[in-house]
Amino acid sequence: MDEQVLRSLIKWPNVPDCFGWLALDRRGQWRMRDTFAQQNKLSGQVITHLALNEFISRNYACDSLGRYFFQNGPQRVFITLDATPWIARITPSAEGLQLITQCHSPVEPSSALSDESGNIYIVGKVHQLIYIQENQFFKEDRETVALLHDHDLDHFSQLAKLRKEACSYGGSWNWQSKQLPLDPIRSEEIASRFKFIAIPSD
């Protein structure tokens, strides 16, 4: 978290929380949702300003209830999640393929899940910023779930050995010379299984 953000929390500790104005879409884009977008259940405007996107990513955290938020100076802006708290891309690097989130942090995968719509979710550890209490934060490698960006589904299928299940696909996938499990899941089970709140409220 940015040092200036921590200083502002100490200086202005009682700024009201904000809900509904910021969203993370299925492609890892931050979206600003004004009153019109909220009232009409619209996705909102994609934030394209590079510095603002990086600022949000550096100050993206989770509280003990499973609500994700952006600490915008002294104000906590809770984020509506279209899918999961993290969106992963398969990215080439000098060490081979990596899974990278929308916040540029690596995912250490342990398995994957496939839902009834063909979405792939990567299960693994991500280095996260965790809020405890009274403006105290710590960083931890915590198991979570990341929706795989739809542009990488074909690449994933090349790594996978699939078998048809009742509601989706199961099997395994090859990642960095390891065979990892791929299991079916229903999309409505994702949030409860991984203990996050997609639409936070106060």
Q: Average pLDDT across residues? A: 91
The helix-and-strand class reads alpha+beta
Profile the largest sheet. Answer: 14 strands, mixed
* Helix percent band: 10-25%
Total beta strands: 14
User: What would you call the shape?
Assistant: globular
How many domains make up the 3D coordinates?
2
Quote the beta fraction.
over 45%
Radius of gyration: 18 Å
Give helix and strand order, one letter per element, not per position: HEEHEHEEEEEEEEHEEEH
Which spans of ≥5 residues are poorly predicted at pLDDT below 50? none
Count the DSSP helices.
Answer: 5
Distance between the termini: 23 Å
Question: Strands, helices and their partners?
Answer:
Layout: H1 3-11, E1 18-24, E2 30-32, H2 35-39, E3 45-46, H3 50-58, E4 60-62, E5 68-72, E6 75-81, E7 86-93, E8 96-101, E9 107-114, E10 120-131, E11 137-148, H4 153-159, E12 160-164, E13 169-175, E14 178-184, H5 190-193
Parallel strand pairs: 1-6, 4-10, 7-11, 9-14
Antiparallel strand pairs: 1-2, 2-3, 4-5, 5-6, 7-8, 9-10, 10-11, 12-13, 13-14
Question: Can you walk through the features of this model?
Answer:
With 202 residues, the chain is an alpha+beta fold. It folds into 2 domains: 3-81, duf1285 like fold (Roll); 86-126 and 143-189, no CATH class. It has helices at residues 3-11, 35-39, 50-58, 153-159, 190-193; strands spanning 18-24, 30-32, 45-46, 60-62, 68-72, 75-81, 86-93, 96-101, 107-114, 120-131, 137-148, 160-164, 169-175, 178-184. The model has no long low-confidence stretch (mean pLDDT 91).
